[in-house]
Design goal:
Helix content is about 20%, strand content about 30%. The protein has about 250 residues and is of the alpha/beta class. This is Thiamine pyrophosphokinase.
């Protein structure tokens, strides 16, 4: 059984948790919570501009360990500031990868260096602070990045003010709800198939509309706007699926 346990967002060893911050508008309180409960912080390119502007009164408290990207949108004064305060910079000009691809790939490589990180990637929980709102191409790019990188880490989850998203690997996945989530939409969840290939034999428990040996595919069946009824649910499938859960962050 593959256990997908959301408790690590609130409990667990801080040194095993890393935050990756994307270029987007921020919920200050959620950002501060994720920052203080993670030990390693990576900022994607232009996201450093947002970070620089968001806490002018406490800027020195939020210095990322690494800034990664091609720096096409990073302001020079922001780069100078963070470098002067100890941030490491990794410039990656590869235009075939998104900034999130680059952050996750380099994070995987950095975790192999004990002088940089004390935790190998297979023990690392990675929280990507981001959202699927806005441009559709960015949303699909983020989903693709999670699919690409999730095998590298112990856990990889996209965290936003209104929802979380993760990739479910093949097998039986147990998903535990946290009371701290304070769901804003009645624990609305979604199970989404990937790509154009059908996913056969999908079975769930603990949802309002359970699937029973169902076939999922775009153009046929997707389980959007479902709902968790209990504190845990299971999703069993022979292929990868996307799991989403609506949340209201009050931490």
């Amino acid at each position: 059984m593959n256990h997908i346990v959301n408790r690590f967002l609130f409990n667990g060893l801080k040194e095993e948790k890393c935050m990756v911050f994307l270029n987007m508008d921020m919920n200050r309180e959620l950002f501060k919570y994720l920052w203080r409960t993670t030990a390693f912080h990576v900022t994607a390119d232009g996201a450093a501009n947002h970070l620089f502007d968001m806490f002018p009164e406490a800027r020195e408290q939020y210095i990322p360990d690494y800034i990664i990207g091609d720096f096409d949108s990073l302001h020079s004064n922001v780069l100078d500031y963070y470098q002067a305060h100890g941030s490491h910079v990794l410039k990656d000009p590869n235009q075939d990868n998104t900034d999130l691809d680059k952050c996750l790939l380099h994070l995987h490589e950095l975790s192999a260096d004990r002088s940089v990180m004390n935790v190998p990637s297979d023990r690392l929980h990675v929280l990507v602070y981001g959202d699927l709102g806005g441009r559709f191409d960015h949303a699909f790019g983020i989903i693709n990045s999670l699919i690409f990188a999730y095998p590298f880490f112990k856990d990889l989850v996209l965290v936003g003010p209104k929802s979380t998203m993760r990739i479910l690997p093949p097998g039986v996945n147990q998903i535990e709800r946290c009371s701290e989530f304070q769901s804003g939409d009645g624990d609305i969840c979604g199970i989404i198939p990937l790509g154009g290939v059908a996913c056969e034999h999908v079975t769930t428990t603990g949802l309002k509309w359970n699937l029973n040996d169902s076939r999922m595919q775009f153009g046929e069946l997707v389980s959007s706007s479902n709902c968790m009824l209990f504190d845990s649910a299971t999703v069993s499938a022979p292929c990868h699926l996307v799991w989403t859960l609506s949340t209201k962050w009050e931490v």
